[in-house]
UniProtKB/TrEMBL annotation:
Name of the gene: PMS1
Recorded superkingdom: Eukaryota
Record-annotated DNA mismatch repair protein S5 domain positions: 208-328
Organism for this UniProt entry: Platanthera zijinensis
Protein's UniProt name: DNA mismatch repair protein PMS1
Family listed: Belongs to the DNA mismatch repair MutL/HexB family.
Length: 332
């Protein structure tokens, strides 16, 4: 049973960035306006996510990290109109099986907070009262320590994992209106660096400036296109001649209805059209696809990064035509 548990967990939590992603999504689901992410040794030793969301009520403590425990889906039909990031109740249970999990939380109905320690099977092994504001802190020590091979691989690739995590946090911070993000990293030499900092602005534009910097923002143009009768794209795209010298995907952010997702085909399309305008660079993009919940499915992979869109082929074609319009008038 425990092996099956570990194998299945591997699918939700693939790496450092998917682990932190799950915690950040929980904080957003809890209505937090302040989310702080602290890493030790780029997340290899320890990471925690602190929020000022609604907190977790004591009746949920025992089942919190049990597989499939979720407070978010009440009816099965909810799966078709997801308004929360989470719905499977797998993240905390997976994290438990992969590292050492502690949770500190308080709702507005409690006078004091509670600190909970879990074992690898998701059971509470210690509970004590603690002073804290309303909200939740979830900490994970030594991710993948229960899977030696994965753990070695993690150590070997920490820098790359860390880069991936930064890009992912940037993606969430850009789209989350009114949510202040702070991410810091502490290394063994006790040097602390700020990875990400936003002010909780109410506009995506201000978030883009906070995340990518004013200089980069000034290379961008607002984007608003109708791709089809039921799909529009809102965001920013770098002006012709401006872009990123690298093609690391770290400056292309794609969303569906505000949910960060991978869109390799759209990334490829952008790069191709942009190249066609005689540039050696890669475009910077922030693109939010707004479409009815019935026209796509994020429930394809456990990490919900891959999406299945109905009519993807024709969507990509007409998007390409629109992007060509953006770039072509400037060609000489
Ligand atoms: P899911 O998000 O799919 O429901 P998780 O395993 O991520 O599953 O979380 C399990 C449950 O724990 C959530 O449904 C929620 O009730 C609670 N929870 C987890 N993190 C937080 C948080 N930061 N604030 C409030 N509740 C939380
Ligand atoms: Mg979740």
């Amino acid at each position: 049973k425990s092996v099956a548990h570990k194998i299945c967990s591997g699918q939700v939590i693939l790496d450092l960035s998917s682990a932190v992603k799950e915690l950040v999504e929980n904080s957003l689901d809890a209505g937090a306006s302040n989310i702080e992410i602290s890493l030790k040794e780029h997340g290899e030793d320890f990471f925690k996510v602190i929020d000022n969301g609604c907190g977790i009520s004591p009746d949920n403590f025992q089942v919190l990290a049990k597989k499939y425990h979720t407070s978010k889906i009440t009816y099965f039909s909810d799966l078709h109109c997801l308004t929360t990031f989470g719905f499977r109740g797998e993240a905390l249970s997976s994290l438990c099986s992969l590292g050492s999990l502690t949770v500190e939380t308080r709702t507005k109905n409690e006078e004091v907070g509670t600190h909970l320690t879990f074992d690898h099977s998701g059971s509470v092994i210690a509970e004590r009262k603690t002073a804290r504001q309303v909200g939740t802190t979830v900490s994970v020590e030594k991710l993948f320590s229960t899977l030696p091979v994965r753990s070695k691989e993690f150590s070997r690739n920490v820098r790359r994992e860390y880069g991936k995590l930064t890009t992912l946090l940037n993606a969430y911070a850009i789209m989350a209106k009114g949510v202040r993000f702070l991410c810091t990293n502490i290394t063994s030499k006790n040097s602390k660096s700020v990875v990400l900092k936003t002010q909780g602005n109410n506009s995506v534009k201000e978030n883009v400036i906070a995340v990518l910097g004013l200089n980069t923002f000034q290379c961008l143009e607002p984007l608003s296109i109708n791709v089809s009768a039921c799909c529009t794209v809102e965001g920013f795209l770098s002006k012709p001649g401006y872009g990123s010298g690298r093609n690391m995907g770290d400056r292309q952010f794609f969303y569906i209805n505000g949910r960060p997702v991978d869109m390799p085909k759209v990334g490829k399309l952008l790069n191709e059209v942009y190249k066609g305008s005689n540039s050696k660079q890669y475009p910077i993009a922030i693109m939010n696809f707004i479409m009815p919940a019935t026209s796509y499915d994020v429930n394809v992979t456990p990490d919900k990064r891959k999406v299945f869109m109905t009519d993807e082929g024709s969507l990509i074609l007409s998007l390409r035509a629109e992007i060509e319009k953006v770039y072509s008038p400037h060609q000489c």
